[in-house]
Design brief:
FAD/NAD(P)-binding domain; binds P-hydroxybenzoic acid; alpha/beta; 12 helices; eight-stranded mixed beta sheet; 409 residues; binds adenosine-5-diphosphoribose; single chain
Length: 409
């Protein structure tokens, strides 16, 4: 089997983080093998947010997988907020001096990355069972797994843990070497995907008496909606009709008039969580993307954070192989975590602002309304939302700009 023997980097997980890393390493001439626990179809069946910051879209362009994204992605220069029955617009473009976001489904992005990998003939093992990581603390990393009834072993220089929140990589680090920060929110998001035109041209975030809702989209004829629901709710309680009825209640008159309903293509409930592991490097093992941190989806930052982790680890690996320097790899954790914590803060803040918190009582609700009233009627408040939503520049807060290793010969 192609994966047996030795490679430079073993990537665990073929979500967006693992696939993008594989692609960028390939372009840089670094060998990598991806091991994925699930089937390709299973990975492509997951529905997740698809709001790309410019930094992420640029990186996908660099990875030579940006063609369909540029063609089919929807450029959004703003989004709406419906708060206590009143509509506001966050003019992303105007408030940030020209920045926008790109709406492109994560499933489509994953498919583009898989196709590019397949076309380049790069090795991916799907349905790899019992993946286990070894030796990363003493510079002799290797990975073992089972596939087709046989045991396999792959020796490598580095292991990239791109295996998501429930993966094996973070779980393999000694407890004394890692610190984990976590907050679980007292509600979940019930999501519904439908082959219907979206209720408005831009995304609409809704906060009101009945709780949070979000009207999003995948294209001009595919919409994605979410409702804040209690954590105790089961999917079986929510027929499509019940979902549409509740969404109508959270919308305003205009929204109700424009809403087009239809049968669901997918429906699921996801809990909301803020989570960060520190550090993100353990010898020759790196945690990348959801394996190292989770944000609640309110700010749509999950994929964007994964992309910047990938950029930083790629830069470090290129520097290692081209210049035999570990400087970039040594900085990986610190560089990522600064950006991660900023996005954690924004995602937590936006979540706190827009959801109903059952335990906060009437005082909490009034303070939340007052904060929204201030933010949405102040230029500074609107700008704070906008500049975080489009994503802070990669160099934000850095005093000395880093060299771009890919520019060197
Ligand atoms: N062995 C091999 N593969 C594994 C293992 C394992 N033990 N555990 C998990 N995986 C795989 C999962 O099946 C999944 O395909 O790792 C992959 C992790 O992918 P994601 O969960 O998508 O994580 P990531 O690539 O970091 O994604 C970052 O995309 O999926 C969203 O919410 C996520 O927005 C975030 C962004
Ligand atoms: C989505 O389209 O799934 C989506 C968009 C924006 C978010 C979260 C999810 O903040």
């Amino acid at each position: 089997m192609a994966a047996e023997g030795r490679t430079q980097v073993t990537i665990i997980g073929s979500g967006p983080a693992g696939l993008l890393l594989g692609q960028l390493l390939h372009i840089a001439g670094i060998d990598a093998v991806i091991l994925e626990r699930r089937s390709r179809e299973h990975v492509l069946g997951r529905i997740r947010a698809g709001v790309l910051e410019q930094v992420t879209a640029d990186l996908l362009g660099e990875a030579a997988v940006g063609e369909r994204m540029r063609r089919d992605g929807l450029v959004h220069a703003g989004f709406g907020m419906l708060v206590q029955g009143r509509r506001h617009r966050i003019d992303l473009h105007g408030l940030t001096g020209g920045s926008t976001v790109l709406i492109y489904g994560q499933t489509e992005l994953t498919r583009d990355l898989m196709d590019a990998r397949h076309a380049a003939g790069l090795p991916t093992v799907y349905e790899a069972e019992g993946v286990s990581v070894h030796g990363f603390e003493d510079r002799r990393p290797y990975v073992t797994w089972r596939h087709d009834g046989r045991e396999h072993r792959l020796d490598c220089d580095f292991i990239a843990g791109c295996d998501g929140f429930h993966g094996v990589c973070r779980a393999s680090v000694p407890r004394s070497a890692i610190r984990e920060y976590e907050r679980v929110y007292p509600f979940g998001w019930l999501g519904l995907l439908a082959e219907t035109p979206p209720v408005s041209e831009e995304l609409l975030y809704i906060s009101g008496e009945r709780g949070f809702a979000l009207c999003s989209m995948r294209s001009h004829d595919r919409s994605r909606y979410y409702l804040q629901v209690p954590l105790t709710d089961q999917l079986s309680q929510w027929s499509d009709e019940a979902f549409w009825q509740e969404l109508r209640r959270r919308l305003d008159e205009t929204g109700r008039e424009q809403l087009v309903t239809g049968p669901s293509v997918e429906k699921s409930i996801a809990p909301l969580r803020s989570f960060v592991a520190e550090p993100l490097r353990f010898g020759r093992l790196f945690l990348v993307g959801d394996a190292g941190h989770i944000v609640p989806p309110t700010g749509a930052k999950g994929l964007n954070l994964a992309a910047t982790d990938v950029k930083y680890v790629t830069d470090g690996l290129i520097e290692f192989y081209r210049e035999r320097s570990e400087a970039g790899l040594d900085e990986y954790s610190v560089r990522c975590l600064r950006r991660v914590w900023r996005a954690e803060r924004f995602s937590w803040w936006l979540t706190s602002l827009l959801h109903r918190f059952p335990d906060e009582g009437p005082m909490g609700a009034k303070l939340q309304q007052a904060e929204l009233d201030y933010l949405l009627n102040s230029e500074a408040g609107l700008r704070t939302i906008a500049e975080n939503y489009v994503g802070l520049p990669l160099q934000f807060g850095e005093t000395t700009p880093r060299r771009d290793t890919r520019a060197s010969p």
